[in-house]
Amino acid sequence: MNATHMHYEVLRTVRNRRLLFFTLALPLVLYLAVGSANRNVHTEGVLFPLYFMTGMAAYGAMFATVSPGARIAADRSKGWHRQARITPLQASTELVSKVVSAYLMVLPTLALLYLAGTALGVRLSPAQWLEMTGLLLVGLAPFVVMGFILGYVVPIDSMPLAMGGLVVLFALFGGAWGRFFNGGPVLTAVKLLPSYWAVQAGKAVVGSGSWPLEGWLVVLGWTALLVPLAALAYRRSTSRT
């Protein structure tokens, strides 16, 4: 991977103040405001600070992982993709650099919320912290691909609304602010969302230590379905430029 291009992508990411607000500031403020008022409450069999910590971590991290879409749309609008095809820069290098920069933005989001969770009484073993982090990172894979799809099909002017709407809907129905459905066919449908399993990462590590098979299949299924769609969107975008 081209280190110079990777450095450039990381700089573009950290200079995006709107992204920093939604990935770092907003989830942390919401967590401290709501979590501190409910630190002794139990939700779904675990302390609310733990449940809400993973909910806000998933919410902020989803913004980080779809963020490459905005940079792709910006590059398309400026004709960068057309120029890039006549340079030595390989498409795979550009792809990997955007994925890595997105995940690098996830790490400070998780770190800040973990520190806040510890301050509100969340107590996990080192293995449980690592397990929860791993589940969150795996659960975010479909959103990385969604970001690429948005970047190749949505105009730059519409990207903020598209990204925000996508993340908020997945976070809402995934239970980031609390589960709205306690049973029945609606809950069965909600469990088909990858965001549901990302939010469940905290509960999983204090229970079985991982997702059930259903969770792994949902995340894998979404990723496997979205990757060909992203490849198609890329080909269509490059054929028009």
Describe the structure.
The protein contains 13 helices and two strands, in the order ααββααααααααααα. The protein has one domain (3-239). The model has no long low-confidence stretch (mean pLDDT 87). The protein is mainly alpha-helical.
Chart the SSEs and their pairings.
Elements: H1 3-14, H2 17-35, E1 42-43, E2 46-47, H3 48-66, H4 68-77, H5 80-84, H6 91-119, H7 126-139, H8 141-153, H9 159-174, H10 184-190, H11 194-199, H12 201-205, H13 213-239
Antiparallel strand pairs: 1-2
Keywords for this structure?
single chain; 241 residues; mainly alpha; two-stranded antiparallel sheet; 13 helices; 76% helix; 2% strand; globular
| Cross-sheet strand order for the largest sheet | 1-2
Derived structural class: mainly alpha
Q: What is the helix content?
A: over 70%
Oligomer: single chain
Mean pLDDT: 87
> What is the makeup of the main sheet?
2 strands, antiparallel
Quote the beta fraction: under 5%
- The N- to C-terminal Cα distance equals 25 Å
What general form does the structure show?
globular
How many alpha or pi helices?
13
Q: Regions with pLDDT < 50 over 5+ consecutive residues?
A: none
